[in-house]
Design brief:
With about 450 residues, this protein is an all-alpha fold. It contains 20 helices and two strands.
Length: about 450
């Protein structure tokens, strides 16, 4: 299971993270490069809804997870062939990315239900903390290696050859991940119902305790953010004229800032409360797009990325703790599945607005400036929805974070791994302290 996490994260760093850059290298415009990072996420969230039926048909969480992992690895084949040929139709770019996200997100609910039968409750906190640390290191290495290959790995006669190489390495990493998954047992099959969507439970959770207001704020804020977020890659590789190496280090810096500040943010959430942490981190995220217009100095942008990663770590930690804290264990998967869908709709909506502005406004730097200012203004206006969001007590549900993708503007796209509860008792406090220290869980 540890090796699977490392191999999966290497695939994320080497592969999907560079898909928008690949779209630009193929000659497609900024709007296409931005949308290829967001539209497929909606396909993934929709495909995830079929997981319960698929698990029931196969009669096994393990079989479904291994099948989806293997199919996700195969989605890199069209990208490799396109890079070697120097061309790939836009339809195949979107289709390949959609299948990648579809197979990838479909493993989430089934994998969570499966691994909770394999890892004893008494060691879950420590084990998943160690697994997260190894996975984060692997993703960082994969991201940097991919960037260095793109910067220095030119192949005569094959201008897109470096992309073919990193996509081949990503395919190999996910194939290795699938092999590690297949080698694990399923001696105690989890009930199929663990991944079944329950509309009644979801509506009950949203309607109580002010969660409807919180959900509305999270979705509107995400929509505002993603007006600009998917267009940072074309902005960095276009008007700013950054090299692949500079692009990689700026992207990696935001991701590592997330990782490094998370343990401290867990302690902050304990002292401040989740609502205050959510408010402060949201305010920190609001002005970031405009600050990109102040200077194109690499040192300035590097500092902005560190600030961005820290602010986004606080935002996602606070929002996850606030929203998932009261979900009964049997309702966690259902709520997370529907939340992923709603979040994907907000992301696609925001990216569509940004794409429309780019395609109907000024070109070059001025067009990107309009998108960045619009996103900043929308973020500021959405803060009004924080009024009425309830405070939550330190949670029983302790979320682990799984990185699905790395993005220059936010540091990454992450989702919680809901592996059960850690109750506030003398017996569990030691494990909770270990988890908080490792940055995976936040109760301390």
């Amino acid at each position: 299971m540890m090796r699977d996490g490392v191999a999966f994260s290497a695939m994320v760093g080497l592969g999907e993270s560079y898909l928008p850059a690949f779209a630009l290298a193929l000659g497609y415009g900024s709007v296409t490069a931005g949308l290829v990072a967001t539209l497929p996420m909606l396909a993934g969230a929709l495909f995830q809804l079929a997981t319960p039926a698929a698990v029931g048909l196969l009669g096994s969480h393990r079989r479904w997870v291994v099948l989806c992992a293997a199919l996700q690895a195969l989605t890199f084949i069209p990208l490799i062939l396109g890079a070697l040929a120097g061309q790939l139709s836009l339809v195949f770019v979107y289709l390949t990315a959609s299948l990648y996200w579809g197979f990838g997100m479909s493993t989430g609910p089934a994998w969570t239900a499966w691994v909770t039968t394999l890892v004893p409750r008494t060691i879950r906190a420590r084990f998943f903390a160690q697994r997260a640390r190894a996975s984060q290191a692997s993703l960082f290495v994969g991201l940097v290696v991919g960037g260095m290959i793109l910067e220095h790995g030119g192949i005569e006669g094959w201008p897109l050859g470096p992309f073919a190489l990193i996509f081949a390495m990503a395919l190999g990493s996910r194939a290795l991940s699938a092999a590690f998954l297949a080698s694990q047992s399923e001696s105690q099959p989890a009930p199929i119902g663990e991944t079944r969507i329950s509309p009644e439970a979801i509506l009950s959770h949203v309607r109580t305790g002010g969660h409807a207001r919180l959900l509305l704020y999270l979705l509107v804020f995400q929509l505002s953010v993603w007006v600009a977020a998917p267009y940072f890659t074309p902005y960095m590789l276009g008007p700013l004229g950054l090299s692949y190496a500079q692009f990689t280090w700026l992207t990696a810096s935001a991701f590592m800032a997330r990782v490094l500040v998370l343990p401290a943010l867990g302690r902050v959430a304990r002292r401040w409360g989740t609502r205050r942490l959510l408010m402060v981190s949201s305010i920190g995220i609001v002005p970031l797009p405009i600050l990109w217009l102040v200077s194109d100095s690499f040192a300035w942008l590097f500092g902005l990325q560190l600030l961005s990663g820290a602010a986004w770590a606080g935002f996602e930690l606070a929002s996850l703790l606030s929203f998932f804290e009261r979900i009964p264990p049997k309702g966690q998967t259902s709520v997370l599945t529907v939340y992923n869908l709603a979040n994907a709709l907000a992301i696609v909506g925001g990216s569509a607005i940004g794409g429309w502005l780019l395609s109907h406004g000024w070109s070059g730097f001025d067009g990107f400036a309009i998108v960045l200012v619009t996103s900043c203004s929308a973020r500021f206006l959405s803060l009004a929805l924080l009024r009425g969001v309830p405070e939550t007590a330190p949670p029983d549900v302790i979320p682990s974070l799984r990185t699905l993708s790395v993005r220059p503007s936010t540091g990454g796209v992450q989702r919680p791994i809901l592996i059960g509860r850690l109750r506030r008792s003398a017996r569990s406090s030691g494990a909770a302290r270990v988890a908080a220290r490792e940055g995976l869980h936040v109760e301390s």
